[in-house]
Amino acid sequence: MKPLVVDQVVKQYGDKTAVNGISLEVDRGEIYGLLGANGAGKTTTMRMVLGLIFPDEGKILYDGKPYSKEQLRRIGYLPEERGLYPKVKVSDQLVYLARLKGMSAADADRSLKQWLERFGVPEYYGKRVEELSKGNQQKIQFIATIIHQPQLLILDEAFSGLDPVNVELLKATVKELRDNGSTILFSTHRMEHVEELCRQITILRYGNEVLGGSLKEIKGRFPREKVRLAADGDIDGLERLPGVLGVKALEQGGWEIRIADEASGRGILRHAMAQAEVSRFEILEPTLNEIFIKTVGETHE
Ligand SMILES: Nc1ncnc2c1ncn2[C@@H]1O[C@H](COP(=O)(O)OP(=O)(O)OP(=O)(O)O)[C@@H](O)[C@H]1O
Known about the structure:
Elements: E1 4-13, E2 16-26, E3 30-36, H1 42-50, E4 57-62, H2 69-73, E5 75-78, H3 90-100, H4 105-118, H5 134-146, E6 152-156, H6 164-179, E7 183-187, H7 191-197, E8 200-205, E9 208-214, H8 215-221, E10 226-231, E11 244-249, E12 255-259, H9 262-273, E13 278-284, H10 288-296
Parallel strand pairs: 3-7, 3-8, 5-6, 6-7
Antiparallel strand pairs: 1-2, 1-4, 8-9, 10-12, 10-13, 11-12
The structure holds adenosine-5'-triphosphate.
Adenosine-5'-triphosphate (ATP) is lined by residues 13, 16, 18, 36, 38-44.
């Protein structure tokens, strides 16, 4: 039985349909990407999973059971708008939040110290939140999300505002939580993070699912329309080859060539090999970013 099943949920705000029959299932040890343009219905979906609002239609099951207060204790939520109290000490605040989730004060205190140590910031224990930089406040909020060892994690733009070192730190932590069996619903506009972390995704548009399934299988549905080519010398006439739609010389050397179909790629390789020693030739699969733009288009609110 899957830890999280969202089945045909619908949510209306007045006559506006924010979510229109979304279904998804997330397994243990899996990070599921929930994607979509601004206003597509991601936050509304996450709020329904959290039990903050209830679907007008459809159902959400946690280990096969409907929502209950007990379930809430097993969920960790990192909202996009961060919400720590600026004047309260990190230790007081996180122990309080962990106790609301059913942890004893002693266990919460021990766990907090371990996480602060692990994130390289043990000195934040006695600091007020407002004394920390924005990125470091975010690390604290991340600890607040996972301190009670939730089985189901809902992460909304988990890495925004962090420097690259801290992004890697939190990313490694999310992967570790996954490997230890957490069920993770992950929402972001950063497609490269989805490519790295998520096995399955749903892309929403105006509250509807426009693309869903395994990332690998979704990529297979889209044509490969780009060639990366590098050679030890110049190659003339690339733009005049059949099926070549555009040629861009890359800063780092070589070319990126837009092609009409994969068959045109073979003609490029033959042409290039006749003129120079080819050191790289690759027909690239589309990036998730490209797929997203193709699917969702420029339809932002
Ligand atoms: N409380 C509310 N009352 C009325 N309309 C709402 C409410 N919350 C969301 N909406 C509307 O529902 C739609 C979906 O909003 P939602 O916040 O779920 O989008 P989102 O995908 O999370 O967007 P973003 O990427 O900008 O965070 C939007 O059209 C929004 O205006």
